Description:
Blueprint: H1 2-24, H2 33-57, H3 64-96, H4 101-129, E1 133-142, E2 149-154, H5 165-176, E3 182-186, H6 194-202, E4 213-216, H7 226-235, E5 239-240, E6 244-248, E7 255-259, H8 264-268, H9 275-279, E8 288-291, E9 307-310, H10 322-328, E10 334-337, E11 343-346, E12 363-372
Parallel strand pairs: 1-12, 2-3, 3-4, 4-5, 7-8, 8-9, 9-11
Antiparallel strand pairs: 2-12, 6-7, 10-11
Helix pairs in contact: 1-2, 1-3, 2-3, 3-4, 5-6
Amino acid sequence: MKTTLFIIAFLGVFALLNMYISRRYIHHLHLSAKHKRWLRYFLYFNYAGIIVYMIGRYTGDFPNWLFFLVSLPIGILFLLFCTALFYDISRLFLNAVPLVPKRREFFKKTLDISSFGLAFALSAKAIYEARFVKLEKVTIKLKNLKQSYKIIQLSDIHIGGLIDAKFIASLVQRVNTLNPDIVVITGDLVDIKLAHAMPALHELQSLQTKYGTYFIVGNHEYFHDIDAILNAVKSLGIKVLENENVYIGERNNGFNLAGVYDLFGYRVLHHMPELELALKGKDEASPTILLAHQPRFIEEVQNGVDLMLSGHTHGGQLYPFRFLVQLQQPYVSGLHEHNETLQIYVNKGTGFWGPPMRLGASSEITHITIEPK
Length: 373
């Protein structure tokens, strides 16, 4: 039911974007009626691709080449919308400037051509950037820490579609070369029916760490039978932190690692985050790192946590979307000092959701070194 409502809302939003592009962009282009009609046909065809993608995303029955083709329309439509918005504002500005008719027509044609070029260039660059997962290195100093530790953070992998067993196997191989003390996966690991996700999940058993691999749920796990996913992850030997904490390293020489359920639990009234429970019984003499999928969970953290690791935002994934993410989340990517005692690092996502496109927000494996302060 939750998945169905999400699909309906998602398709509704993109239908509105389609309408805006048609009425506020294509309608005003310096083109013949025939060419405008063909552009609208492209919009309809593109939207049909989005519908097919959503069907395939949640059935898992499509081959990868088809997933690639039908996932691109989501990114293309969003970037077209951004282009249309830029065009609309520029056109209104141009109409407000006093110009002779011939010069106004010249600038209008220039705007039409450049907007097409912009949309094409952004789409091509976004597809190219999504081919790479960058290694982001960051050093974070923590009070009361006795020695350094190496943490590899993965987040928002979104197994399903193009994120398959081959992708995960390659990812695991890269992580193992880094010789991590621990690996943390901060939510949105599975985004498809569990039966289809299992071949990719099994690849995670090959992760090699000194003190283990740890996982917390993200909002997308709630869409696909969260209890079944939790049991499947546990069966791989990965420790799931369910409003609880563990101690990493030798006693009095390590740190607390705590994890909470996602904020989405408040909406569905199960698997809800409980910070007090997650921190119960922790070693007060050692620093505490909290895994919480959404950065805005930091608003619930008053004390007892030194560093929070999150994901969820994808760094905006396609750069213009970053500004919308900022309306909901206090931090979108990177390391931030929330206050005098609490820092937060937000991973931009190791995989991607929707189109295999990234613009100004590369996928990342985060290599975190925590050091004594």
